[in-house]
Amino acid sequence: MSNVYKKIGVLIVVLATIALVVGVIVPGLLQTNVTVASIPLRELVTVLLLWGAFYASGSLVLYRNVKVNYTRKIVHFSFFFLPLFLDAVFPIDGAGSSASLSYIFILISFVVFIEPILSRAPFAQRMFLAIDRPEDRPYTLRWWWIQIFTAIVALSIGAVILNVLGYGEMLVLVPVLAAMGDGLAEPIGVRFGKHKYRIYTLFAKTDQKYYRTIEGSATVFVATFVVVLFSGAFFTTPEFILALILVPTIITVAEAIAPHTMDTPFLQFFGCIALVLAKHFV
Predict the structure, then answer these.
(1) CA distance 172 to 123
(2) What digits encode the pLDDT tens for the residues 105-154?
(3) What are the extents of the domains in the chain?
(4) What is the pTM of this model?
(5) How far apart are CA 57 and CA 148, in angstroms?
(6) CA-to-CA separations, 60 to 96, 112, 126, in angstroms, rounded
């Protein structure tokens, strides 16, 4: 792929992320309430939009030779932000945030990536191309499911901690921080990274060496700093100042030490811890 395509890919990811984050941070944008009876339709739309992102990204890999490092992050942002965005735009009457319901439906829809279905369904194979990095084979599916499971566990533990301490309203920031930090780090690191450091793997025996870059890690810091910067409503002034220091720093370190493919659960758990420290110790 030419340098022009690489730049376009990075630009699309950045612009899409900014647009989606604005939609999450400014709830009420184009807001239209839906009834409880309409929930299945909304969740079906969510799943179909996500599948569309997977399929389109897989097509970019197949027909345009776009690096999977980029397409993985397109579906990464779609997975994290579509439920939050649609929940902000189409909230359910008489309910609080229902994005967690959308995540459940999405996780159920990932049944198409179970081997018996994946090996027989061409549309699922096209979707799978979007996440199947050559360097991850033959462990792509194993790492995919482990990452999803550990991310759910990490977010659940973080949610319990935040709710017990009375900071439950801040839970919405956790997936935004994780998605922005992890989502932008890889494409920026792949495109511009020059200074590499080695990371380790879990749950696989492989001679393949994996690396991250200082440039990618710096992107984590900047991206999460920006998220906190636009989230001042969650903090008092002293908490906000501490959060601007603690949250990006802790999440950047968490991303740097996370095993290969395990960024998301590390960022979610330590993102919760960072928010608690900023709120609790001022």
Answers:
(1) 32
(2) 888 889 999 888 999 999 999 999 999 999 999 999 999 999 988 988 88
(3) 1-132, 169-282
(4) 0.81
(5) 19
(6) 37, 20, 10
